[in-house]
Each structure stands twice: as structure tokens, then as C-alpha cells.
Design a protein that fits this description.
With 249 residues, this protein is α/β, with parallel strands linked by helices. The protein has a single domain, classed as Rossmann fold, CATH 3.40.50. It has seven helices and seven strands, in the order E-H-E-H-E-H-E-H-E-H-E-H-H-E. Strands 3-2-1-4-5-6-7 form a seven-stranded parallel sheet, with helices on both faces. Strand 5, helix 5 and strand 6 form a beta-alpha-beta unit.
Length: 249
Amino acid sequence: MNKPQHPVALITGGAHRIGAEIAQQLHQAGYNIVLHYRNSMNEANALAKMFNADRANSAKIFSADLNDLTALEDLTDFALHAWGRLDVLINNASSFYPTPIGTVTEQTWDDLMGSNLKAPFFLAQALALELKKNSGCIINIADIHAQRPLKNHPVYCAAKAGNIMLTQSLARELAPEVRVNGIAPGAILWPEQQSDLSEKSRQKILEKIPLQKQGSANDIARTVLFLVKEAPYITGQIISVDGGRSIYS
């Protein structure tokens, strides 16, 4: 059986925000898209419908709880059989919320570690053979706070720090066939849980950024596209897309 003409990308958390922008960039670049979502069914359906209207049979959706290993297995099986190939894995899905010391439970620990570290590892492991066959790549969405801890978010920061080491470790384990890189966003989108963040607080954050402005989801998506399409000699790297924030203490 001949493989389809279009390469295929699996994007976790691909229904909205940064994930949706990544999906749009890759789809425009000729990729077929497997959109993973957990609860955002309406957004996933709308995005897939738009992609399929532009190019027939070019997008499929799948719901899964990334903290459930059985669900992860179902997702990988779906992705591998959607078009009979897989070329790119984007580990974008992420839980994010504060966990001040004294409030952390095993459930919150497992949730934050699950989406940010456990799922990216097990997806990479399950898809490694197919990605090797296609000289594919993996991109993990990390965070600048993996190296500069964010107050009241110790579990999230620890998970993202693990995500960075996972990226570097996978780059060694899967070389030379598969490239593995990460992107560490800065102030791109205000967290959904912090929609009530005051304008003064937001401005205080932006003042710490050399470029003196907030980034956009498109900045992340364009970096993903660069790593996927234009960087055959880059692996094991974490690219900070943060307006220069990480050069300051």
C-alpha cells in the first residue's frame, strides 16, 4: 500500500489557542492533521470542518484524556491509521494552574505531570518507530518558567523542567532518524484561568520583556513550522520565543 502524498501531523491540544494556530500553519504547509482534544469538541469540529473544506479528507479529530494510558494508546492507534503514516508529533496539550505549597494534592500533581511530561513521553515512545520510518520530528511545547520558576506554580514548573530534559533525552535516543526539539513560549496568551488579571499586572509583566510587547500564537506556530520544514540539522534544542524575557534574571 502506497503512503498518501501529504505528510501527517498529530497535535495534542490542537482545538484552540496555540494548538489551533499550529494546526493551521501545518495544514497550510500541506500536512494532514490529526487534532487531539479533551473537552473542546465544538472547536475541534469547527477547525476540522474548515480544513476539510479547504482540502478534502485532510483533518480528523480524536478525544482523549492524556492522563489515561489506555486513552493514549487509542490516540496513537487512531493517528497511525488515519492516513497510514505519521511524520510529526506536536506535544502541545498542557494543564496550567497554581499549586501553592500546602495545597498540592496527588490529583493535581498527577494532572500537571501527566499532561506536561508523562503524555509527551508515552506518545513519543508509541510513535517512535513510525516517526523513524519517515525521518520525522517531535516538538514539545515547554515554557520559559521551566528554568525561571513562577511563583505559586512549583508543580507546573517542575513538569515543564522535566519536559525540557525529556526533549533533550529523546533527541539522543531517537537520533539519527528523528529530530526532537522544544519551544519555550513567554508572554504569548494570558492563561485562561487568569482572564481577570488586571491591566496593571499585565503591563508589569510586559515591562520585563525587552521587546516591550506581548507575543502571539502565530509566533509559536511559525517557529514550529521552521523546526518541521527548515531545520534538518537542529535537534535537542529549546527555542525561547519570549521577546527576550529569558535574557533577564
